[in-house]
UniProtKB/TrEMBL annotation:
Residues 418-438 are annotated as: Disordered. Residues 426-438 have a biased composition (Polar residues). The chain crosses the membrane at residues 7-28, 143-162. Residues 167-219 form the HAMP domain. Its EC number is 2.7.13.3. The keyword Transmembrane applies. This is histidine kinase. GO terms for cellular component: plasma membrane. Its main location: membrane. It is a multi-pass membrane protein. It comes from the Bacteria. It is found in: Cell membrane. It catalyses: ATP + protein L-histidine = ADP + protein N-phospho-L-histidine.
Length: 438
């Protein structure tokens, strides 16, 4: 904010300086041009008595003397066509002055001054001189430089004054920002010492009140989470007992695994709700093992619905920077969409391959395709929750990757999940056969 205040003051100062100095600079230039023109006109008019009465030789000597003293070309056009002094063509201004009208005109060499001299017995003579651009702008550049330095000095003084005034305003704001960042990092004991203008003191008090309220809400939330944990584990225990009572051992093992996976998912959700998140950057999962496990789980449903599954996995391990449970949820979300949004019998393929700094997981099917905005959280074209693709997207972004939607060349949807590679040792992969996320 301090920099923005300085920028604002600088912008205002520059505008004020420009508003005053630019017209002054133009006025100086106009005055210099007028001064040079008046001086040249006076020199030319001083020849008028000689040109009107003297013989050509006297006029020639006087013209040459004036040209040498002034440093400007001076020409006299006599009525008989002779040109005395500097040789120059008869310009339109000279032709007009020959009719008895004195004037000034712009030319390629500078400002042309022509004076008509009447009274000669043979007609009207014309005195012509040219004021070069260098003479008209002499001293203007130096004056502009002085004005520019003065303007810069005024802007710097304004910035210095504004900086001292803004310092007292910005210091309390910096303290507010520091405390807010500490609160964001779960340092809920952080408080701000209200200071500065009345508005900032009020904001500081509000921030302290907010921090206290957050502590109260977190205590209530933890109590509710603890109660939720107890209430969910009771029906899960009942489900496990029911599964163990099944006569078919395979069905019993499959349902028990599903209940275990659901219990792990509930435990993970409770842990996240209690702010017990793992250290950032510590997660590393073998993508080959995770994808193999989830495809094996979905293959049972694929066989029941008549779907052909094509699995193409690169040799492992391929560690990615995603926790095992989040990667499993992302794969379940992609495969669950295939089953939810394509008719029975639709084949799909799962491919996993390294690609530079990423590991690319591709799920393609032969269904009707997928809308480009389906990755938006809550967006669904088939009446579902619209969270599946967003779960996969967030898992990819957390690892430094991204989610890409496309279409297969022969029709159907193709979803590519680019997962960032991990450098640590992958977490041991446990069989997570719980209910998929849809």
């Amino acid at each position: 904010m301090r920099a923005r205040l300085a920028l604002l003051v600088a912008a205002v100062s520059v505008l004020i300086v420009i508003a005053f100095l630019v017209p002054l600079a133009l006025l100086l230039r106009t005055a210099a041009v007028d001064r040079a023109t008046v001086r040249a006109t006076a020199d030319a008019q001083s020849l008028a008595p000689v040109v009107g009465t003297a013989d050509p030789e006297t006029v020639r000597l006087t013209v040459e003397q004036l040209a040498a003293e002034s440093g400007r070309p001076v020409s006299v056009f006599l009525p008989d066509g002779d040109v005395l002094g500097s040789h120059s063509p008869r310009t339109p201004a000279v032709e007009l002055a020959g009719r008895g009208q004195s004037l000034t005109a712009e030319s390629a060499d500078g400002r042309e001054v022509v004076i008509a001299v009447q009274g000669r017995p043979d007609g009207t003579a014309v005195i012509r001189t040219v004021v070069p651009y260098a003479e008209m702008t002499a001293g203007v550049g130096r004056a502009w430089l002085v004005l520019a330095l003065l303007g810069v000095l005024l802007v710097l003084i304004g910035l210095a004054v504004a900086d001292r005034l803004a310092r007292n305003l910005v210091r309390p704001i910096d303290e507010l920002s520091a405390v807010s960042h500490r609160l964001a990092n779960a340092e809920l004991e952080a408080r701000v010492q209200p200071a500065g203008p009345a508005e900032l003191r009020e904001v500081g008090g509000a921030l302290n009140h907010l921090a206290g309220r957050i502590q109260e809400l977190l205590v209530q939330e933890r109590e509710q989470v603890a109660d939720l944990s107890h209430r969910l584990r009771t029906p899960l225990t009942a489900l496990r007992l029911e599964a163990e009572s099944l006569r078919d051992p395979q069905d019993a093992a499959r349902i028990t695994d599903a209940v275990d996976g659901l219990e792990r998912a509930v435990t993970g959700l409770i842990r996240q709700a209690r702010w017990r998140t793992p250290t950032a950057g510590a997660a590393s999962t073998d993508a080959v093992a995770a994808v193999t496990d989830r495809v094996a789980f979905w293959s049972v449903l694929a066989e029941d619905t008549g779907r052909a599954v094509e699995l193409d996995l690169a040799p492992g391990p391929l560690p990615v920077a995603v926790p095992a449970d989040e990667l499993a949820a992302a794969v379940d979300a992609l495969l669950g969409n295939v089953f939810a949004h394509t008719p029975d019998g639709t084949a799909f393929a799962v491919r996993l391959a390294p690609g530079g700094d990423h590991v690319m997981l591709t799920v393609a099917d032969e269904g009707p395709g997928i809308a480009a905005d389906s990755v938006r959280r809550g967006a669904s074209q088939a009446g579902s929750t619209g969270l599946g693709l967003d779960i996969a997207r967030r898992a990819a972004q957390a690892s430094g990757g991204r989610l890409e939607l496309g279409e297969r060349p022969g029709g159907g949807a193709e979803v590519i999940l680019r997962l960032g590679r991990a450098t640590g040792t992958p977490e041991p992969q446990t069989r997570a056969s719980g209910s998929p996320v849809r």
